[in-house]
Structure formats: C-alpha cells, structure tokens
Amino acid sequence: MADSSAEFDGYSYHSQGVQYPGGGEVGVRYHQIVSPYEFSLCYFEGFKTLPTFLYDKDPINLNLNYQTLYPKMRMVGADSPRRGTAPVWEGRVRLHQFGVPYLAGTWTYAVQAEKTGDKWQWAVELAGDKLTEAKRPNTLDLDRAARDAVSGHAAWTPNPRQTVSAEWFVHPDGGAFVTRILYSRNLYSTFRAQRGIPVDRRQPIRPLARYNVNSYLTLQLRYSF
After folding, report:
1. What is the predicted pLDDT for the residue at 204?
2. Nearest to 196 by CA among 218, 175, 215
3. Model confidence over 194-203: pLDDT tens digits?
4. Residue 23, class by beta-carbon neighbours within 10 Å (0-12 exposed, 13-18 middle, 19+ buried)?
5. How far apart are the C-alpha atoms of 52 and 7, rounded to whole Å?
6. What is the rounded distance in angstroms from the CA atom of residue 216 to the CA atom of residue 223?
7. Tens of pLDDT along 9-33?
8. SS3 of residue 95 by DSSP
C-alpha cells in the first residue's frame, strides 16, 4: 500500500478497519449496430470493487494508520469498434465520479487493436486516465495502478490439441512488467492439462510494486464430461 517505497520505508502498518458498502447497484448498457458502424453506451451506479485507502502517517514513531473503503461511484461510458479492417480497432472512454470528498473523478480511455488468423490471435491495448480535479493527499486508489499501461495477449494453436498463449502488462517506461505464458494440451478426450509460468517484475516506484517478487509455476487439469 504505497505510491513509492521510499515514502513508506520503515513504517509499521496498522489497519483502522474496513468500511463495506451498503445498498443496491444498477447498470444499463445500450448496444447498436448500423453496418458498418457499431457503438455502445453504458451507465453504472454502485460501489467500487477495488478498495481505496485513506492513511495517516506518524513520521516520529514510523506508524502508518490506514482505513479501507469501498466508496460509492457513478460511471458513464461509450465504446466503438471499427470492424472490416485488419486489425480490428476499438476505442473506449469512461467518466468515473465518486460521492466522497477524498476521491477525484477520472476520465479513463483505452485503444485496442486485435487480429485473428488461421492458427493465431493477438490483441494489444493502451490504457490511461486523467483526473478531473487535483488528487487528494493521503489517498491510495488501487484502480489507478494500471494507468498509462500497455497490455495484451497472443495465442498460437498449431493443432486442435495444443495451444500456446501469453498475456502481459507493462508500463511504457518499464516500471512494472507482468506476464503469464501458458501451454495447454488435450491428454485424452475428457482431460486437458495447462501449465503456466507467471513472471512478475515491478520497480518500487509503482503502486503495483507491493509484492515485487511474485513469480511462480501453475499446473491445471480439467476434466470434461
């Protein structure tokens, strides 16, 4: 829970509790195709799924007290893919507003290119955000950890029994890099095995760098009946 490692070096963390949301949520999406154009509009009113942290530092005793919150939010957005081209392009934009004084509203945007071939598929997306007002002090918003980043995936299927795929997330300056390489193979008609190697490299200056050594191996066996 830090914007930078230097800012919180040596501090002890103390939770002041969690404030869980109450009430209902509502979302509406309108999708329209008028060949060759396509677009969608959406509206959501509810609560954040990722927490926001309010913290108070005691630099004398090196204590950091924080509270975990899930504030109410309102989102309106639009997206439009451009089909009939190679690759397929899609743009998305959203405005997030929060009903609390400690969070600033944000414009988020993303541009994605995707292409599918006979045995392979790839997609690359650039995402970013802009604050609608000044960021409040002593606030850490996990939703903004992936801002100004490039993500994507690629998959190659040489035959119906095997698939090799990769997913990645990287900041343009290399401050954080996360990838996962997967190999999937049908063993029998009802079994499919998948092995994965996630690789995680993050510099301390990133909000994503709370756990900067987080690589591991995975093995998954699926039975279909």
Report:
1. 47
2. 218
3. 888 777 665 5
4. exposed
5. 18
6. 24
7. 678 888 888 988 888 999 999 999 8
8. strand
pLDDT of residue 42: 97
For the chain, helix (H) and strand (E) counts, in that order, are 0, 15
Phi, psi of 212 (to 5 degrees): -90, -5
Closest CA to 172 of 154, 149, 144, 155: 149
R_g over Cα of the chain: 21
Take residue 151 and report the two structure tokens written for it. Answer: 């993500």
User: Alpha-carbon distance 55 to 69, whole Å?
Assistant: 11
**Closest by alpha carbon to 51, among 140, 147, 138?**
140
Hey, what are 215's tokens? 């690589």
Q: Residue 150 contacts by C-beta under 8 Å, 6 or more apart in sequence?
A: 124, 125, 126, 127, 169, 170, 171, 172
Average pLDDT over residues 158-169: 90
Q: Nearest 5°: phi and psi at 142?
A: -65, -25
